[in-house]
Amino acid sequence: MHFHLVSGGCGFVGRNMVKRLYQTTQDKIIFVDNLSVGTHPSTWLDTEVVRKDGDLEVFGPDERLLFLHQDFRKFLRDIIDDENYIRKTYAPDFERFSDVFHFAAIVGGRSTIEGDPMKVALDLSIDAEFFYWITRHKPDRTLYPSSSAAYPIDLQTEGDAIALAESDINFKKMGEPDMTYGWSKLTGEFLAKTAAEHYHLSVTCIRPFSGYGEDQDLTYPIPAIANRIANREDPVEVWGTGKQGRDFVHIDDVLDCIFWAMDRVTDGSAINIGRGELLSFIDIIKTMCAIEGYDPEIEQLLDKPVGVFSRYSNMDKVHEMGWRAKISVREGMRRVLEAQKGKV
Ligand SMILES: NC(=O)c1ccc[n+]([C@@H]2O[C@H](COP(=O)([O-])OP(=O)(O)OC[C@H]3O[C@@H](n4cnc5c(N)ncnc54)[C@H](O)[C@@H]3O)[C@@H](O)[C@H]2O)c1
Known about the structure:
This protein is α/β, with parallel strands linked by helices. Helices cover 38% and strands 21% of the residues.
């Protein structure tokens, strides 16, 4: 019996990962979340809680899903202080973690990234304690999600935007990343490389571009736009001019790429996860409206934060290595629209 760990396991990426691990393995999954943003597993797991003990809730008839409602840093400190802590407190059959997926972070979309940068900077503390712990515990494999926000912002302006390639981040010649969010991700990547090189651990970094999915919350643009269109709003609001562009990639593709990458990239270096396609928010609105068959006016909200003008990936390296996103933008938008219509 293997044990896997998912931090931030009730957030958007984390809960999709927990469900995927539960469906595709027979292993036990410990997932930790303080529910500052994440939603309680009873709202998104198909299986029931079978046992509760303090801050532990065990789900599923086979008791393979162990949810801990607590700050991930507290969990790390407990298991660093006492290497038998998990066995004594939560799971008598626990020995060590096989795969570790670290999704606990303060993200919060554009309004938090620009509106409360020092709150986002707390990610530095979560990541530092996380990387210290893996060098003690030595899990078989570690996944660290960096972000496209780590790329230099001067490569993402209206005049100078390029498809961002992995080599555009160079620790010997640094550019300025996107606010404290991008800075914490750069630091995380540096720690990941150090963990791999200095402590001989298998660490994989990913730089997802704009991940989206049916169960993402409405602080993110794709579900927010889908919600407006599912409600047949006219005009449909867009933040900024709507001409700013991103590289949208469906969460199922992100998870597929993570598992593919963990078998191949083990030295702490990072790969892009995107479609390599730049779409503006107006393109997204038009795609969804075409699916729905209506043609509303678009109203620009020029006082809203919009971030860089253009952020999209150069996927050449990953394509050459053999992975490619499968879910088209139209299919992904259709799925999100259907989910939002279910809520209307
Ligand atoms: N979603 C994307 O497209 C995307 C793109 C690039 C990078 N990432 C990275 O992937 C990771 C997960 O992103 P997400 O979209 O799922 O974000 P999210 O906000 O939905 O999930 C983060 C989770 O961490 C939890 N959390 C925060 N601080 C915690 C703490 N101290 N202890 C325990 N839990 C804590 C929150 O409650 C939340 O459930 C983040 O590191 C993010 O930077 C995501």
